[in-house]
Specification:
8 strands, TIM Barrel, binds 2-phosphoglycolic acid, single chain, alpha/beta, globular
């Protein structure tokens, strides 16, 4: 089964609108001459404050899609500071990243909240990018697989197989995020194949074959080719290296050297 790769840039809490403007201009210039049929799906996830601007700048361009970095599961109401799926859809988002380890760690997001967000995103016609990953301590104590399997089971609980098939998962070992220390590709592929197996257990094999599972954690232009040559890695969620158009564009073009 061939799954279309995804290269997604997670800009995190970076960039004023003027900086987002030059970054997206640089990315658009870099992908302009690429053959769309050979390209991965390119996604950018700016902060809420830059979504409208970036949305306008990529409007009508089928080579690039917009993601938000978070949402609330309720559609509206007295939730000061929160943003709903419908509001993000209104701005042109197609994807919403949920359950990033930074949100789990610093904002106490639980598996239950992530599951509610996934349901709300899919009900609203958008697609979730569901993040999971283990701490260094969990890895060293040998509980990586059971921890990740439980995060995935909780996130997908109650979703239909067709909704699961459309969703995206990102495996991001926490110790590899922003540290410059990428997870060995063979090991990342092993964990991602394990995740695919968990997806199969909660759905069926065609759903597990369809869902795209990304790797994230210090992805760079120099690492992406090897990562994309692995059987189960369907793309990357890129933080630091997505903040410069040159390195993000190089990741996109390097990923295209690998036949899928
Ligand atoms: P990084 O971040 O590429 O800077 O390690 C990845 C992420 O957190 O999504």
């Amino acid at each position: 089964m061939s799954r279309r790769p995804i290269m997604a840039g997670n800009w995190k809490m970076n960039n004023l609108t003027s900086e987002s403007k030059s970054l997206i201009e640089g990315i658009l210039a870099g992908i302009k001459d690429l053959n769309e049929s050979q390209m991965p799906e390119v996604i950018v996830a700016p902060t809420f404050t830059s979504l409208s601007l970036v949305s306008d700048m990529i409007s009508g361009n089928s080579k690039i899609a917009l993601a938000a970095q978070n949402c609330h599961w309720e559609s509206s109401g007295a939730y000061t500071g929160e943003v709903s799926v419908e509001m993000l859809k209104d701005l042109g988002c197609s994807y919403i990243i949920i359950g990033h380890s930074e949100r789990r760690q610093y904002f106490s997001e639980t598996d239950e909240m992530i599951n509610k967000k996934a349901k709300s995103i899919l009900a609203g016609g958008l697609l979730p990018i569901i993040c999971c990953g283990e701490t260094l301590e969990q890895r060293e104590s040998g509980v990586t697989d059971e921890h990740i399997a439980s995060q995935i089971r909780a996130a997908l609980s109650g979703l239909s197989n067709s909704d699961i098939a459309k969703s995206v998962i990102a495996y991001e070992p926490i110790w590899a995020i922003g540290t410059g220390k990428t997870c060995d590709s063979v090991e990342a592929n092993r964990v991602i194949a394990m995740i695919r197996n968990v997806v199969k257990e909660v759905s069926d094999s065609s759903t597990a074959d369809s869902i795209r599972i990304l790797y994230g954690g210090s992805v760079k232009p120099a690492t992406i080719e090897e990562q994309m040559s692995m059987s189960d890695i369907d793309g990357a969620l890129i933080g630091g290296a997505s903040l410069k158009a040159d390195s993000f564009n190089e990741i996109i073009t390097n990923s295209m050297k690998v036949a899928v």
